[in-house]
Write a structure and sequence with these properties.
- The structure holds two protein chains of two kinds.
- Chain A is of the alpha+beta class.
- Chain A contains two helices and four strands, in the order βαββαβ.
- In chain A, 19% of the residues lie in helices and 18% in strands.
- In chain A, the strands form two sheets. A two-stranded antiparallel sheet of chain A has the order 1-4. Chain A has a two-stranded antiparallel ribbon with strand order 2-3.
- Chain A is globular and about 30 Å long.
- Chain B is an alpha/beta fold.
- Chain B is globular and about 65 Å long.
- In chain B, helix 2 packs parallel to helix 7.
- Chain B contains eight helices and 30 strands.
- Chains A and B meet through strand 3 of A and helix 2, helix 7, strand 24 and strand 25 of B.
- Bound molecules: flavin-adenine dinucleotide and iron/sulfur cluster (SF4).
- The site of iron/sulfur cluster (SF4) has 15 residues of chain A, from helix 1.
- Iron/sulfur cluster (SF4) binds next to helix 1 of chain A.
Chain lengths: 78, 464
């Protein structure tokens, strides 16, 4: 599954790193690093992380979109 | 046909061509479909790859955490496009509304979006640039090759140019415990983007992490061995360093050559457009059907004195693509201006660097929170008595506040009190941007003055 994090928006509170530690990790005090092509076994974790991100900085491929988040945050294509 | 009917027909069965199949191109394509465009959509890209994300190339990829071909961008929706990957656009006929491709094909359009971005400026000496071991870093293929060589355990890497890309590469090398020398012609790293005061912090960071940092020097030549592999670099101060990898990080050149003679206002500084992303032609008249977005665009911003800004920023590419796409299929009354607040991030030597506004426009700086010596601070930048930008080192949570200060043209030096203000933050000092006639490498913002009095902040790219 493909994902991208808008690191302008990201506040580095590590919510995602808590929910999907194999995909998102903190690098130093507050920089976030992530695997942009996460393993399929991580699908559920990553979806949960994307849902939980308080600033909706995580974009997933459309097939992987959490059903509830039809309009992910300010990624504003609507 | 009425104007409305024309627009209706365009949205239903028009032909839209996007040249440049990367971040801006993809996000524009998605927005067009999201806005109900059902006509033919063609994406032209000279790289053979599907749109991928560049920021991880100098970070996760060089660290070996992510393979170079694993950064393909997620899709926000199906775009049902015709892809012309691996084929460059070579010409534009404005009158006939036609794009020419390298393979001889032509594409007719009703609306065209140009999102051809920039490319790495190569080492200017051609024979030296061809030596084995000399790299640039802009594309996925560049990153794959460089990572491969870093993984083989080089004896020393030389990075030429300490802008963001050069500094991130040096950081990745150190994290991999590869010896690295950085050569920068300015007095400190990041000076062109963030000024001398913050540049000094960047210099300390590099040295603290074991980078052999050489500022105020030019690399005068690269030397190869009999097998054509790079071995040594010579500096303007007479010194030399032995390196088996050289990464040239001297900033970028805008991909506009294919538009020469097209009649579009396209040149080395990019393609000028209005706030609605419509490109100007060479007469300074805005076009109706040609739009631009991303790194290749240069657009006026009222918050910054209507200066034309060229931003090499990820967030700008996304935001401008969305506005351009919306405007391409909207009536003039419904068009939106692209008034994005310039913002970017960088991660290097374990520090999260973030910026809002346009630091290179500033004359003064004030460390409003934290301390330079601790490498953890917020600095506000002032221009003619107002806040024009802010930069944080590991204090990103404060940026939203400063963003509002910039939007409100709040006075500088700031009148508000802050937590954690240290003595060094009591008085503004000169921000220390170098003389613009002596450009540093790799600006992330290129300003071009709209009035002669502002010429001192204009930037003249070095001729490659
Ligand atoms: C290593 C690296 C690290 C970065 N890190 C950050 C960061 O941390 N933060 C940040 O804000 N930004 C960062 N950026 C900048 C960010 O990646 C760019 O702002 C963004 O990619 C711009 O997108 P774009 O679509 O406008 O242009 P590009 O991504 O440059 O895409 C343009 C595309 O058009 C293609 N093209 C060019 N000419 C033609 C032609 N004639 N015909 C067809 N196709 C053509 C190009 O090959 C390219 O694929 C980084 C960039 C790099 C290279
Ligand atoms: S949850 Fe969102 S804001 Fe927090 S670190 Fe992850 S991406 Fe950033």
């Amino acid at each position: 599954m493909r994902l991208v994090v808008d690191l302008n928006r990201c506040q580095g509170y590590a919510q995602c790193a808590f929910l999907a530690p194999d995909v998102f990790t903190m690098h130093g005090e507050e920089a976030l690093m992530y695997d942009p092509q996460a393993d399929d076994t991580q699908r559920e974790n990553v979806r949960r992380a994307a849902d939980a991100c308080p600033v909706k900085a995580i974009t997933l491929d459309y097939e992987d979109r959490p059903a509830a988040a039809g309009k992910a945050g300010g990624s504003g294509v609507g | 046909m009425s104007v409305d009917g024309h627009l209706e027909a365009l949205r239903r069965e028009g032909r839209i061509v996007i040249v440049g199949a990367s971040l801006a191109g993809l996000r524009a394509a998605e927005t067009l479909r999201a806005e109900g465009f059902t006509g033919t959509l063609t994406l032209v890209g000279d790289e053979p790859h599907e749109p991928y994300d560049r920021p991880p190339l100098s970070k996760q990829v060089l660290l070996g955490k992510v393979p170079a071909d694993h950064t393909r961008l997620p899709r926000r929706r199906p775009i049902d496009a015709q892809w012309r990957l691996g084929s460059a656009a070579t010409g534009l006929d404005l009158a006939a509304r036609r794009v020419r491709l390298a393979d001889g094909d032509t594409l007719d359009y009703d609306r065209l979006l140009i999102a051809t971005g920039v490319r790495a400026r190569p080492w200017p000496h051609e024979l030296e640039a061809e030596l084995d071991g000399v790299f640039v870093l802009r594309t996925q293929d560049d990153a794959a090759r460089l990572h491969h060589r870093l993984a083989a355990g080089p004896r020393r890497v030389l990075v030429i140019g300490a802008g963001f890309t050069g500094s991130e590469i040096a950081s990745a090398c150190r994290e991999r415990e590869v010896p690295v020398t950085v050569a920068e012609r300015a007095a400190a790293p990041l000076v062109g983007a963030l000024g001398g005061v913050v540049g000094e912090v960047a210099a300390e960071l590099q040295r603290a992490h074991g980078v052999d940092l050489r500022c105020g020097v030019l690399v005068t030549g690269l030397e190869g061995d009999s097998a054509g592999r790079v071995r040594k670099a010579h500096f303007s101060d007479g010194s030399a360093v032995e390196a088996d990898i050289v990464v040239v990080a001297l900033g970028a050149t805008r991909n506009t050559e294919w538009l020469a003679d097209s009649g579009l206002g396209a040149g080395p500084r990019g393609i000028a457009c209005d706030a609605g992303c419509r490109a100007f032609d060479v007469r300074g008249i805005v076009t109706d059907d040609v739009f631009v977005a991303g790194d290749v665009a240069r657009s006026p911003h009222p918050l910054f004195g209507y200066q034309f800004l060229s931003l090499e920023h990820w967030g700008n590419a996304v935001a401008q693509a969305e506005v351009a796409a919306h405007n391409m299929v909207s009536a003039s009354a419904e068009r939106r201006p692209h008034l994005w607040m310039p913002s970017f991030w960088s991660a290097q030597f374990g520090v999260n660097i973030k910026s809002v506004g346009v630091p290179p426009m500033a004359d003064q700086i004030l460390v409003s929170q934290g301390s330079l010596a601790e490498h953890r601070f917020t600095a506000a930048y002032g221009y003619q008595g107002r806040v024009i930008a802010a930069v944080t080192f590991d204090q990103a949570k404060w940026l939203d506040f400063y963003e509002r200060q910039i939007e409100q043209a709040a006075p500088f030096p700031p009148e508000f009190t802050t937590v954690d203000r240290r003595p060094e933050g009591h008085q503004p000092v000169s921000a220390g941007f170098p003389d613009p006639s002596q450009p540093t490498h790799g600006p992330t913002v290129t300003l071009s003055g709209y009035s002669p009095t502002d010429r001192r902040v204009s930037f003249t790219p070095r001729r490659a």
